[in-house]
Amino acid sequence: MITDNTADSGARFAFTDRWGGVSAAPYEALNLGGAVGDEPSAVRTNRALAARALGLEPERVVWMRQVHGKDVAVVDAPLPGESRDSAPAGSDPCDEPGLDGIVTDRPGLALAVLTADCAPVLLADPVAGVVGAAHAGRPGLVAGVVAETIAAMVRLGAVPERVLARTGPAVCGRCYEVPEWMREEVAAVVPEAYATTRWGTPSVDLAAGVCAQLARLDVAAPRQSTVCTLESPDHFSYRRSGTTGRLASYVWIEEGAA
Questions:
Q1: How far apart are CA 163 and CA 247, in angstroms?
Q2: 40, 148, 24: which is closest to 94 by C-alpha?
Q3: In angstroms, rounded to a whole number, what is the distance separating the alpha carbons of residues 74 and 48?
Q4: pLDDT digit string (tens) for 36-46?
Q5: Nearest CA-CA partner of 34 in 79, 69, 65, 71
Q6: Closest C-alpha to 131, from 161, 114, 110
Q7: Domain spans of the chain, in order of start
Q8: Confidence band for 251, pLDDT divided at 50, 70 and 90
Q9: What is the DSSP letter of 237?
Q10: Cα first-last separation, the chain
């Protein structure tokens, strides 16, 4: 269920795998994403199980309706209407605008990113008591969601040089095959994301791209997950399975720590 749960100077970072939940195939078992076709009641149960395993109340976790963009919101509570994120497939999960980054300065309020190959980026300045979470797929990486999230944190008092960063399980550059034109499109913005698969075809390295963007923003190199979601049977991968569940990555400041 929770594969990595670490504390650093009052900041907490956690990542899930696909096991320990109640969802049936093809979402077995700990699917945390709504609007992917899973039963809404199963998603709600899974979110509660994961939150409590982390010592959090489910209502203290903020979820986004992710749209592969760069929009970022500052939050002080779960987003209005987000409980509908567990609506059946084909329905609008939420009336709120789509977001791919969220930031808060509220201790004990956890920010969550949903992924199944994209790179989850978790950020924290424990001194300022500010955290951020970004969903960095290929479009978001190119659009600049990482920079937008850092900028929103700075407006709340964070200092880039103090920010602790983590990247979670994602498809690796050895596996993320794309057309040549797409690799060139990404590399034109983030040259470090240029990659080649193990079998010699064009690919994109999302984690390398995120690291490069953070470095240009004066954020120290993140602690990176070694998990490739496409290669790991313990993690959801849209590229491998098509219809599948979603992993979650969480970041928060412990109450009383900031």
A1: 24
A2: 40
A3: 23
A4: 999 999 999 99
A5: 65
A6: 110
A7: 2-169+232-253
A8: very high
A9: -
A10: 28
What pLDDT, in 10s, does the model give residues 165-174?
A: 999 999 999 9
Q: What is the topology classification, in CATH, of domain 2-169+232-253?
A: CNF1/YfiH-like putative cysteine hydrolases (3.60.140)
Those residues with Cβ within 8 angstroms of residue 237's Cβ, 6 or more apart along the chain or in another chain = 116, 117, 171, 229, 230, 244
- Which regions of 96-253 does DSSP assign to beta strands (E)? 101-104, 110-115, 119-125, 130-136, 164-167, 194-196, 202-204, 223-224, 247-253
Tracing tokens 């900041």 back to the chain, one arrives at: 11
What pTM, to 2 d.p., does this model score? 0.93
Q: Which helix (H) or strand (E) holds 213?
A: helix 206-216
Task: Specify the amino acid at residue 45.
Answer: T
Helix or strand run (H / E) with residue 176:
none
Dihedral over Cα of 20, 80, 136, 244: its sign: positive
pLDDT, mean of residues 112-139: 98
Encoded tokens for 97: 């605008």
Q: How far apart are CA 2 and CA 19, in angstroms?
A: 9
Residues whose CB is less than 8 angstroms from the CB of residue 200 and which lie 6 or more positions away in sequence, other chains included = none
